[in-house]
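May I ask you to review the protein record following this short note?
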Amino acid sequence: MEKSLHTPKALPVISLTVASALFLTGCFAPGAPDGSAPGDKRIRVAMMQPPRSGLSPLSDDAFKLSRWSTAETLVTLDANGDPKPALAEKWRKTGEKSWAFTVRDGVTFHDGTELTAEDVVRSLTKASRAAPKPRILDGVDLTVTSRGDTVTVTTAVADPLVPQRLSSPQLSILAAKAYRGRTVNPVGAGTGAFVLKKVNGTSSAALDRNENYWGGRARAAGIDVRFVPDGTARAAALRSGEADIVESVPVSQASLLDEDRITEVPMPRTNTLYLNTRRGVFTDPSLRAAARTALDPKSLVDGVYEGRADVAEGLLGPAVPWAKERAGRTGAAKAADPKGKAVVIGTFTDRAELPEVAAALQQQLQKAGFTVKLEIREYANIESDALAGKFDAFILSRATVLDSGDPAAYMYSDFASDGSFNVSQLRDKKVDEALKKATATASGPARRKAVLAAETAILNTDAAIPMLHERVVQGDAANVVDSAKDPRERLLVTVDTYVK
């Protein structure tokens, strides 16, 4: 359930019971053993968002296929966002614009056909020619060819993040049968630990264990998925025992669950106040500094987020492990007296907490001497005005690590002079130089160092004031073992997950 400024934090228990009955009665088959081994049961999963594009891997539905371990990519990412082998055993850079990937031997698709380099070419070429393209390929022009067991990926311009890009679930490798119609159909066409057997529109899906999985036999017999958009019903399903794993438990419902049944996973998502540096009050760096010093992020974490978030120390949070190596702000302006200057702060209703954040910021800034007006609409009706610089400030919940697992793309989009999402209207030479260096540096420690230097340059401008880093709350029944707790939300049920 979404919260507004006047919505209570929790519903009575009777309301949860009713919601559970309405949404989930009869939704899941019993998680009974299949008789093959002790604890060898099916896992019942309640997911937040139903499929939007028929589970096409070329859409955001790809992340469901990844979370169910049914579709796989050439590369995966480690905790630092560096690439590691998956369907590709190894790779190397063969030229300024080309990379060679060796396809793993001994992998079969769920339809029994063998994975070949030609299959990889087909899947990646279909993605590169899709309209619209998967967002990981936005602005990227690539061609894919094969020879023997080697796939060569060539880009129009040098791109040090090609391996990371190929980790995106939207670039999953599927069997030829998936591409026979006008849309991409992933049913029975993946390579992962579980075979997608059936999809019932936007209500449910069923997967069985892949007995021939190249990565070893899964511990669970299968997965039964139910799509339950109502957060109250998802939380109630965990309490009532109707679901084994529940994703995205709302903050307002987490306190109603046993603490040992929930896990808070830091997300690479930062709640940030963007200040307009091109027009209005915040063209003055000293007034941007005044806004920064007026804010009390801890009160937002404790109040709006009920303690289930982390106070921001920078743009990047605890979901990015190496962010703690940052230097932090090194040269921001000193704060001046606002003297009652009027500002308009915009935000949107689509993320339930943001209107509450806006109301709290209004009070904090007015206490510091600003006069503050709020403008709150649905995101679709406010985005164009925000990008056009029509607000003095704008509150965003912003993903800081996009599909490549690398923060440089987000920083460039939001803070480069020619960035496509430059809500702050920032034009700063030092920031541009730092971002250019970060985006051109090869992956690894040197790139991470360059990204943190760019973060410092951005923080020094006070064009954006990071307030808090969000968490996703996942619920697991007491008998669930080894469900994935993934900040990037790419994994949930893996080969190691089972129900006792």
User: Anything to note?
Assistant: The CA atoms of residues 6 and 122 lie 52 Å apart. Confidence is low (pLDDT under 50) at residues 1-23, 31-36.
